[in-house]
Specification:
Layout lengths: L1 H14 L3 E7 L5 E6 L3 E5 L4 E6 L6 E6 L3 E2 L5 E2 L21 E5 L6 E7 L8 E5 L8 E3 L3 H4 L5 E2 L2 E2 L2 H5 L2 H4 L9 H9 L15 E4 L4 E5 L2
Parallel strand pairs: 1-15
Antiparallel strand pairs: 1-4, 2-3, 2-5, 5-8, 6-7, 8-9, 9-14, 10-11, 10-15, 12-13
Pfam families: Thaumatin (PF00314)
Organism: Solanum pennellii (Tomato)
Protein name: Thaumatin-like protein
Length: 220
């Protein structure tokens, strides 16, 4: 009996701070969803959903949408935006430009940390919101950024972040000493709650108690 109780308690504490992330495609076009390290990848036609079960303590994690993809029966191919080494089931981060939902579970002070980042540019409008645990503050980035993208940042199917294009410390913040630029302000004005450059922490990182579940919506 004691062994059974111990196992039950062990299982409870193992899964208590996991998270279920429901990914939904509301876009009128197909999006190939991706998640790393949890999830992998899945094709989502309009209205379809995909559930990612993220283990406790997951960190440096992201969910994103890929567009303009073609895959063969073995799951190999290529995407116009967000491609991850030509695989349907991603094992690595996607190639910019791609809108990112980033998260880390049960970190400092037993909190989850989550954000939407445009540090890798923008390809698909996105919502990233908590759905449980009494946590209600979500994030949306649904501006028409692709259509309004500055000429210097335009890319097929998306809008690049300036670091991807210019690769300078001013835009990439490699030294840690950087601030807003005219390009980061372009993103910030359209999506005020999203990361617009690497040091944009104060207005762009959100928290919920560990054990919260979330949803990611493409084209909210």
């Amino acid at each position: 009996m004691r062994t059974s109780i111990f196992i039950l308690f062990s299982l409870f504490f193992t899964y208590a701070n996991a998270a279920t992330i429901l990914v939904r495609n509301n876009c009128p076009y197909t999006v190939w969803a991706a998640g790393v390290p949890a999830g992998g990848g899945k094709r989502l036609d309009h209205g379809q959903t995909w559930t990612i079960n993220a283990p406790p303590g997951t960190k440096q994690a992201r969910v994103w949408g890929r567009t303009g993809c073609n895959f063969d029966a073995s799951g190999k191919g290529k995407c116009q935006t967000g491609d991850c080494n030509g695989l349907l089931v991603c094992k690595s981060f996607g190639v910019p430009p791609n809108t990112l939902a980033e998260y880390a579970l049960n970190q400092f002070a037993n909190k989850d940390f989550f954000d939407i980042s445009l540090v890798d540019g923008f390809n698909v409008p996105m919502e990233f919101s908590p759905t449980s645990n009494g946590c209600t503050r979500g994030i949306t980035c649904k501006a028409e950024i692709n259509q309004q993208c500055p000429n210097e940042l335009k890319a097929p199917g998306g809008c690049n972040n300036p670091c991807t294009v210019f690769k300078t410390d001013q835009y990439c913040c490699n030294s840690g000493n950087c601030g807003p630029t005219k390009f980061s302000r372009f993103f910030k004005e359209r999506c005020p709650d999203a990361y617009s450059y690497p040091k944009d922490d104060q207005t762009s990182t959100f928290t919920c108690p560990a054990g919260t579940n979330y949803r990611v919506v493409f084209c909210p």
